[in-house]
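Students often ask what a holo structure prediction actually looks like on paper. The answer is less mysterious than it sounds. You provide the chain, you provide the ligand, and the output is a string of discrete structure tokens encoding the 3D arrangement of the protein together with D-ribose.
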Amino acid sequence: MIAIGSDHGGYELKEAIKGYFDSEKIPYKDLGTCSLESVDYSDIGILVAEAVKSGECDSGIVICGTGIGISIAVNKVPGIRAALCTDPYMARMAREHNDANVLALGGRVLGEGLALEIVKTFISTPFSHESRHQNRIDKISAIEEQYKE
Ligand code: RB5
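The corresponding structure tokens follow.
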């Protein structure tokens, strides 16, 4: 199950991605927003982050105008590794090297066709499980531990 959420700046791209998921019968959970009315990206981002962190969803997709604000927000949640990707190569590396569990996209900077290629790459690429990459991810987790209150 893929959690997906956006602010108003990512709403139209979110709907396009849902259309792709529907056509391919890929299960997803839409956590908003539901219109072009202005909302704060952090309010939607936390819903997606929680869905992934709790295990309810295997991965997430978050979208705002640039993808920047919402990726910063979801990366505050321990265990979330969100990658802002602007092309399929970044999406592949985000999965193979970083084991990213959330894909962040910019609805105002990507055309729909490119965005869908990024999504397809992200959801179909496994983590490489090579020890050097796992070690680096473990060090990210150690940083989270270090700064726990
Ligand atoms: C909203 O206008 C815009 O700031 C937001 O979608 C996003 O681009 C922030 O990073």
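The two ends are 31 Å apart (CA to CA).
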